[in-house]
Design brief:
about 240 residues; DNA polymerase, domain 1; two-stranded parallel sheet; 4 strands
Length: about 240
């Protein structure tokens, strides 16, 4: 059989013989590498022994803590209470210690407060306090505490909880001059959309100025609902 293989081998072309030899050598090399890898000793990574020892110590400490917890639970809460002599009283706080403030806080002026001053309000964290300040700047100030429900994510339940802690000072409102404000300034206000601003600016450019709220209502420049909301922020002095 081997002779037959040799005859068939030598009947191959030189290129075919070379390819067959390369394939045979590759197979032998792959087998040799695999055998060598299996015979190599397996070594632990550096520091593995110390790591395993630390794990064992941590597990032992946790076991001791569990044992102590079980022992305390079986003795009951009275076992850990501080000892009070018969006829005595518990230690009192030093005379100079400050008692907790249990009184009501002063209402927070919502139109003048910064985000840090809003943090003590229930349900108001850093995210909502920042949103309230940003919305206040867009509005020009709050004229009602119920406008807080327009802040993204702030529900009416939370507004109801903080209502008593909020002071609305309308003297701090920043008004829009309807005769000098630019198109972009008017459009920035949350209560005006593009069509509203376009109607106001076109009327103002054609007539020279807007005289009053009544003029806006008579010419149907804004819807009644929009006009009612935007009136506190309007100014016609210029």
């Amino acid at each position: 059989m081997f002779r037959r293989w040799l005859r068939e081998y030598y009947l191959l072309s030189r290129a075919e013989q070379r390819a067959l030899m390369i394939l045979s050598l590759s197979l032998l090399l792959a087998v040799a590498v695999r055998v060598t890898v299996q015979l190599l000793p397996v070594r632990e990574p550096p520091g593995m022994a110390e790591f395993m020892q630390e794990n064992r110590e941590i597990l032992a400490a946790l076991d001791r803590m569990d044992s102590l917890s079980s022992e305390r639970a079986s003795r009951g809460p009275a076992a850990d209470a501080p000892h009070v002599p018969d006829g005595g009283s518990r230690p009192r706080a030093p005379l100079g210690a400050q008692a907790p403030d249990l009184g009501k806080r002063e209402p927070i002026p919502i139109n003048r407060a910064d985000s840090a001053q809003l943090l003590p309000l229930p349900g108001i964290g850093p995210v909502f306090s920042g949103r309230i300040i940003r919305y206040r700047e867009l509005l020009g100030g709050f004229v009602s505490v119920h406008q807080l429900s327009e802040v993204y994510g702030l529900g009416p339940e939370t507004v109801e909880r903080i209502e008593a802690s909020i002071l609305v000072d309308t003297t701090a409102i920043r008004r829009l001059d309807m005769n000098s404000a630019s198109f972009s300034d008017l459009l920035r206000h949350p209560y005006l959309d593009y069509a509203d601003v376009q109607a106001l600016v076109r009327y103002r450019d054609f007539n020279g100025r807007i005289g009053s709220v009544g003029e806006i209502r008579e010419n149907h420049l804004l819807s009644d609902s929009t006009l009612t909301r935007i009136i506190p922020y309007m100014d016609f002095d210029r």
